[in-house]
Amino acid sequence: MASFFSPDENSIFGYLARSFDSFAERALTDVDSLVLSCLSYYRYQGDMVRGHGGVPVRDVFRGEWLEEMTRGLWDPEGLVRLLALVAASPRFRDIVVSDYVDDFDEAAEKQFSACVLRLPSGDAYVSFRGTDNTLVGWKEDFNMAFETGVPSQYAAIGYLERVAPSIEGRIYLGGHSKGGNLAVCAAARCSEGVVSRIARVFSHDGPGFTEEALSDELWQTRAALVSKTVPRSSVIGMLFERQEDYAVVESSMTGLTQHNPFSWVVEGEGFVSLDGLGRGASFVDKGLNEWISSMTREEREGVVETLFSVLWATGEDTFADLSGNWQASIPAMLRRIGELEPEQRGHITRALALLLQAFMPDFELPQLPDFELPQLPDLAELLPGKIAEAQ
């Protein structure tokens, strides 16, 4: 395993350990953007970080805060390592973290968080957090399949309008996963005064949009601002009917785990680029998006509500808790599926089949059972081992 500070490592960790020039010497890149987009994942502590004045990023790397800052997030160890490298980096350590917000509303099915990362030049990167580990956060992501504007998208637009006047220079927007979708949505819907100051918008494997989500006129005039990057086996970033133009990057992982930004391969100062998506990812994306587009808005809403009723039947609040307690959670989900009407059961099991293909790219879909209720215990036996292999 690579040491904590390993400049030869082909990831953003290695990039941070070897890239010491300032932003004045070398302009902000896609790799820089991925680093900055990940900085919105932390649950920042203290009141100073919530104001316009903010706190230098090097000062938020405090041992007594780290556990709380990474609570409920994916890969806490990786996030701690990232923050240590950022705090030590001559390129990043003087960036000021400000205007931090963290709004979680279970009733409204809303999970929104963002911060402004102020560069010494006066430019700033508005970073939107991606989805955390909560079922509510993922439920909001799925709501994008049938809603033209979910709560976090409206929050992103309002947040950008609110912080823009406090930024002296150019404005960059970005995020990983849902954060990328929020960045694009904010740029597409913000006022003309704000968009005239936006230098670039970064979406790192962020979901696309339904046809109704963005105005054609606004999209056509502002789409050139967007830089989207996705890994070879992208599933999350290729969701929904409308996609931004995108570049494909190499990952050191397989399947859906390529969504992890720490797996993206960096050589020198840029990502290792590829010609296109892997065949398995293209198959899953095409099937999933064709299925979504074939349904009416009401049908999409019904599928999402039913799918999450199965997940919530476990009594867990996060995917980490759910996966860590498979012996109890699988029977609970199976019982809930058994209560569904046959037509509902068909929709949900089709969604599960596509998700299995996403998690297990080497697993042939024709081998999956028809998911009639008597066969569902076989699926329960399959899941834990296969998911473990995928991770």
Description:
This protein has 391 residues and is α/β, with parallel strands linked by helices. The chain has helices at residues 12-18, 30-38, 63-69, 76-88, 135-143, 151-163, 178-189, 192-195, 216-222, 279-294, 297-312, 319-323, 326-338, 342-359, 376-390; strands at 55-56, 96-105, 110-118, 124-128, 171-176, 198-204, 226-231, 246-249, 266-267, 270-271, 273-274. It has a nine-stranded mixed beta sheet with strand order 1-2-3-4-5-6-7-8-11, with helices on both faces. Strands 9-10 form a two-stranded antiparallel ribbon. A hairpin with a 2-residue loop joins strand 9 and strand 10 (270-271). Helix 10 (279-294) runs antiparallel to helix 14 (342-359) and helix 11 (297-312) crosses helix 14 (342-359). The radius of gyration is 21 Å and the shape is globular. The two termini are 17 Å apart.
What is the CA–CA distance across the termini? 17 Å
What is the beta-strand fraction? 5-15%
Helix percentage range = 40-55%
Total number of helices: 15
